[in-house]
From TrEMBL:
Molecular functions (GO terms): hydrolase activity
Ranges annotated as biased composition (Low complexity): 259-279
Lineage, highest ranks first: Bacteria, Bacillati, Actinomycetota, Actinomycetes, Micrococcales
Key words, A-Z: Hydrolase
Protein name per the record: Alpha/beta hydrolase
Entries under InterPro entries matching the protein: AB_hydrolase_fold (IPR029058)
Keyword Ribosomal protein: no
Length: 291
């Protein structure tokens, strides 16, 4: 059962396909999970798994371990790209989506223990998420980082069990050239989606910075902004994720023939006071729109 509140209206008997919109929730097995860090903290999260023909969870085609935006500016496991990935990708691509709150972060799912550490102690959070994916035998594990989450992926995501990483709107504030060089030596794929109108790092500069990583693919996205707000931007992100993790499976369909639900507009907890300069003022991206 989904942890996200959804409508209880009966599914329409109309056989016509449903257009997938911003608040469309497609079928999946969604369960609350807890992650346990090496320094003794419990982090809260959710794992969304695809369903088989019998309606039971089935083996995923691949696994996304998501790392959310900056919690001191409103980022959390429900930031809209990840929430919608969990709503859509198990059904549309057979993927598992693991979302969780890093230490000290609050969302409707709950609050993870500990306190925000600027990306340092969060190394243990990343390790705990990868460990949970390994423990659950989730196949083909990829990291997906967004903004602050890209820093965590670059600094702490070089685990042998990870097949690669996809970075959304990387600011490269905390991750250094040394981290990029380490990823280059790691040798795993690195896909970098950079909005044309990003507040912090735009495509031309990103290509220069990521040139240190020979296997990095930097993709500039025309018209997009840091928060990927709007259905066209969201679909581009999900298509790029699926297309790189599962070649040949993108673009994703924009309609759905089976049962679906509609979530109410998200109500996010208030963002914590800012503690870091030159970061987005609100990294939830919770505006729901289909434009």
């Amino acid at each position: 059962m989904s942890n996200d509140p959804v409508s209880t209206d009966p599914v329409s008997a109309d056989p016509a396909p449903t257009t997938i919109r911003s608040l469309t929730v497609l079928p999946a097995h969604r369960e609350d999970v807890e992650l346990h860090t090496a320094d003794g903290l419990t982090l809260v999260g959710e794992l969304a798994l695809p369903l088989g023909p019998d309606g039971r969870p089935t083996t995923p085609t691949a696994t996304l371990v998501t790392l959310h935006p900056l919690p001191t500016h409103g980022g959390y496991m429900d930031s809209h790209v990840y929430r919608k990935a969990a709503w859509r990708l198990p059904a549309l691509a057979g993927m598992a989506v693991l979302r969780f709150n890093t230490r000290g972060t609050t969302s409707p799912r709950g609050t993870s223990e500990g306190a925000f550490d600027g990306g340092t102690a969060e190394q243990l959070d990343v390790a705990a998420a990868i460990e949970l994916a390994e423990f659950r035998d989730l196949p083909r594990r990829w990291l997906v980082g967004w903004s602050f989450g890209t820093e965590l992926a670059l600094m702490h995501g070089r685990d042998p069990s990870i097949e690669g990483a996809i970075l959304l709107s990387p600011p490269l504030h905390r991750a250094t050239d040394a981290d990029l060089d380490a990823w280059a030596a790691f040798g795993k794929p690195l896909v970098v989606l950079v909005p044309e109108l990003d507040d912090y790092l735009r495509p031309d500069e990103a290509r220069q910075r990521f040139a240190r990583v020979p296997q990095a693919e930097v993709i500039g996205v025309d018209g997009a902004k840091h928060l990927w707000v709007g259905e066209p931007a969201l679909r581009r992100v999900l298509d790029e994720i699926v297309g790189h993790v599962l070649p040949g499976r993108a673009p994703l369909p924009t309609t759905w023939d089976g049962p679906s639900e509609t979530a109410p507009s998200a109500v996010a907890p208030a963002a914590a006071p800012s503690t870091a300069a030159q970061e987005p003022t609100d990294e939830r991206g919770d505006v729901e729109e289909d434009a």
